[in-house]
Amino acid sequence: MQIAIIGGGPAGLRAAEVAAMGGAAVTVFDAKPSVGRKFLVAGRGGLNLTKAEPRDLFATRYSGPDSDLERWPSLLASCDADSLRAWADSLGVKTFVASTGRVYPVAMKAAPLLRRWVGHLRELGVRFALRHRWCGLRILKKTNDNRPRVELDFYTPAAPHTFEASAAILALGGGSWPETGSDGAWTSPLESLDVSVAPLAPANCGWETPWPPVVLAREGLPLKNLVVRAGAMKVRGELLLTRY
Asked: CB of 168 within 8 A of CB of 16?
């Protein structure tokens, strides 16, 4: 079975890993010259991988419609925080639990983990097609095995490219950081297929404050071990400094 995965972020790479370990031939497509670019940006803050806490509490960190409340404990039963730490360890990346309960690589960097992850995927036979921007798909007629196939269209610097696969997995991210490839442009091809797409909205928020120059010198670096208050709410965590 040939699986095409659109998007080279953590979700796409993990999908490639699971599919390849299951025996599928996997190709990961990404519009950028390399995969995991936003993953590397997250590494500037130390790369918070997960949070170490009891599974029942861990499941409450995932939100959604009321009908989904029972889904998360079952999904996380085989992929909780301990499982993620064991996975990182299998790649030779040691982790530690900070005082906040957040889990970080000991090196506090994303690059070593990403490098070893991609190397592991290549060992599993995963192929990478970079500078391939997805722009459309078609469902083909069923083949002799009575299974439909999908034909995917890509823009590349050289020429348009078409790829046929048994199935496609869309792991396209949001619209948070266009420079890394997360520009939200994938909504247009889906809407052209009459797929309803909810408008993209921010998951985080920020506010403006007149930081002094000595603080702005740390732009792009995190402020650790903070307690932030807004009205009656209090959250322990960190902030990232920017100039806006």
From this structure: no
Which pair of structure tokens corresponds to residue 56? 């029942």
Radius of gyration of the chain (CA): 20
Q: What is the pTM of this model?
A: 0.83
**Above 80 in pLDDT, residue 206?**
no
- CA angle, 119 then 121 then 126, to 5°: 125
Strand pairing category for 50-51 and 102-105: antiparallel
Q: In the numeric block, which tokens belong to residue 186?
A: 């994938």
Q: How many residues can be counted in the chain?
A: 244
Cα 171 from Cα 187, distance rounded (Å): 12
Instruction: Give the DSSP H/E element, type plus range, for residue 164.
Output: strand 161-165
**With left for phi above 0 and alpha for psi between -120 and 50, is residue 184 left, alpha or beta?**
left
3-state secondary structure of 222: strand
Question: Which secondary structure element, helix H or strand E, spans residue 104, and what is its range?
Answer: strand 102-105
| Per-residue pLDDT tens over the stretch 19-46 | 999 999 999 999 999 999 989 988 877 8
Helix axis angle for 10-21 and 111-123, nearest 10°, is: 30
For residue range 175-204, list pLDDT tens digits in order.
888 888 888 999 999 999 899 998 888 877
46 CB neighbour count, 10 Å cutoff: 19
CA-based nearest residue to 165, from 154, 153, 150: 150
| CA-closest candidate to residue 121, choices 20, 193, 6 | 20
Closest by Cα among 164, 163, 166, 160 to 145: 166
* pLDDT tens per residue, range 207-238: 788 888 898 888 878 788 889 888 898 888 77
